[in-house]
Amino acid sequence: MMTLDEFREHVDIYSADLSRWPQDKLKPALQMVRENTAAKEYFDAALALDSKLRAYVPKTPALPALEDRILKGISTPQAASVRVSDEVHIRSAWIFAPGGGLLAAAILGFIIGLTPPSQTNGDTLVDPVYYAQDQIIGGDTDDDDDMGEVF
């Protein structure tokens, strides 16, 4: 059984048009309207409001007056106040600026790539031998290699 507050809430949500109501709420709502006079009055008021809302037709605007008002707001195009030269001025900075920026980015990337990371403490992720330039350039200097000489 549906309470009066639940019925009013459903009428406010779904309107008096029962086709919009959930199927499981239709029978309790119809029973509430038949048995409760307050529910019937509330439902009749919602029906009257729905019929007023459906019957309302908004005024159509006067299209010729609207057109005249828009056209009055549009002024005639004036002559260009800025004189555009027929010559095209090309500055050298326009041509070489992108190349200069690319060169600066390349140099900066090269310097950053050659700079080894600083290793001030002992908790590094990789053994410091991988960053020692003299060992990388000098080659492998391990004496504990047991492979022997091939030639």
Describe this structure as you would to a colleague.
The chain is an all-alpha fold and 151 residues long. It has a domain at 4-55. Helices cover 55% and strands 0% of the residues. It is built from six helices and no strands. It starts with a helix and ends in a 13-residue tail after the last helix. The model has no long low-confidence stretch (mean pLDDT 77).
Layout: helices, strands, pairs:
Blueprint: H1 4-14, H2 23-35, H3 37-55, H4 63-73, H5 92-114, H6 133-138
Helix pairs in contact: 1-3, 2-3
Labels describing this entry:
6 helices, single chain, 151 residues, elongated, mainly alpha
Structural class: mainly alpha
The rough form would be described as elongated
Q: What gyration radius follows from the Cα positions, in whole Å?
A: 43 Å
Strand content: under 5%
**Span from first to last CA?**
101 Å
The DSSP helix count reads 6
Helix fraction, binned, reads: 40-55%
At a glance:
55% of the residues lie in helices and 0% in strands. The chain is an all-alpha fold and 151 residues long.
